[in-house]
Amino acid sequence: LRVARRAANLAVSPAVLRVALRVANLVVSPAVLRVAHRVASPAVSPAVLRVAEGGMNEVGAMLIRLRELSVQGANGVLQDEERGMINAEYMQLRAEIARQIETTRMRGDTLLKPTLSGVREFQIGTNNSAESKFVINQKDLTINDFNLNIIDSSIHNVEESRLNIEYIDNAITKLNENRARVGAYQNRVQSAVNNLGTYRDWE
Question: The pTM is what?
């Protein structure tokens, strides 16, 4: 609108004035705000984070079970047959962790694995500026056998079982750190969505 007023003061032609008014109205158009709110809210950012968090929660539950099995395996009175049974469950759970990491997806995008760029970028505002974009470090979502340090682990004997207890404790700590970051991202995105909604309602 300031552009339009300046144009009017300079006795610019009516045609130019109409163009200026259209441009000024577009900047604060409620339609533009509604689109920004729709993109930021249900579509990408919060949904991606909820799906990633859900996958992490399932992995966390399996890590707790792996620890329970490791404690059982550390018992020196187990017979070979009993140890073999709990090791079989341990290996199945390890395989399921790997499968869930591969299949935690949204719209075909695997969320818990590294990306080529190392970041995920979402539009949460009305402009092509840093303030209108939300960037997530993919490292905060990435989990795998390597960074959880359970690659090649098993509980086929007492020594391995006792070592695994510490490794799995570290894995649970690592996963909880990632989940905390995802929770912080969710809160930040929700605040941005709420702000867009408030701004839109006043327009």
Answer: 0.73
